Amino acid sequence: MKLLRLLPLFLLTLAGSASASEDLGEFVLHHITNAKYWAPIPGGPVLHFPTWLVGGIDLGLSVHVVMMLASAVLLVLLLIPASKRRENAPKGRFANMIEAFVIFVRDEIVTPNLGEKAGRKWLPFFLTIFFFLLVLNLIGLVPGFGTATSNINFTAAFAIMIFLVFNLSGIVKNGPVHYFTGLIPSGLPFWMLPLMAVIEVVGLFTKAVALALRLFANMTAGHALIFSLLGLIIVFKSHFAAIPLVPFTIFIYLIEILVAFLQAYIFTLLAGLFIGQAVHQDH
Amino acid sequence: MALEVLNLGSLSAGIGAGLAAIGAGIGIGKLAGSALEGIARQPEAAGNIRTTMLIAAAFVEGVSLFAVVVCFLAIGK
What is the pTM of this model? Predict the structure, then answer.
């Protein structure tokens, strides 16, 4: 809580990095989109990332890629010690907090959708999704850092992965023909079947697109809002504009922390729901 | 007086974002109203109701943010 008092200073450093010649749109876009250079401390050292072209696609580092790598390293460093059990219960506050999250994912997401036995095998997958997205969302809230989940390419790749997972697991579990015929609910008049087939197939793609778009839009809109509010201080060109704007920005910032947790949870919940529907088709 | 070039894309982006905000406001407002009523009727269920309200609010917010993303795409066209 003591750190929370430094929050206004953090937020003001974000606004301070705009020069007088930038306009608000450039300022906001510059901080939200991916770039090959990164200056975490405004006015300080600028890191330039290398480009590594493989067949026309740049596989080198950029801000969002560095955030993903940092989040992966952070998760490995934090979660592996937290999962060591000396007795039957985790020791220490941090391990207990992680256990609370794990039990939450298991009891609210995995077990209701996938059952007890299969759920135990699927649990690591859902925990990975949940913690990875959570840490990426939260890192993006640190001033100076970028949010990989506010990049449509990242969320689209994640959604494509979930799309493949739920279709393939449905096909493996139910057989290819039975999976697709099982998409259509039973007990319908025969003239509705073609219509329902089209709707269900389009629905498969819509679910994945909606997953990607929901996470991307929430993260981008939140950060755009924070940067726009702070940029307003520069637009008004007066220090007194900071008096109402900084507290309001802090309020929005706290909502963004809530949204970070919520969006990670909702992505995992919907992934669980879709995989559960594909594996246990009840039509 | 000659009319300057009217950028319909930017105009529609602004109007669209406003309409999306109205939609989100109405949706989340109704949601919060029902949640408050539920908590008033049964205070023991407050925790469950609060969690469900937050989850549903995230979905409603998501739909309105789909519209905002389309508005972002329309700016400048």
Answer: 0.86
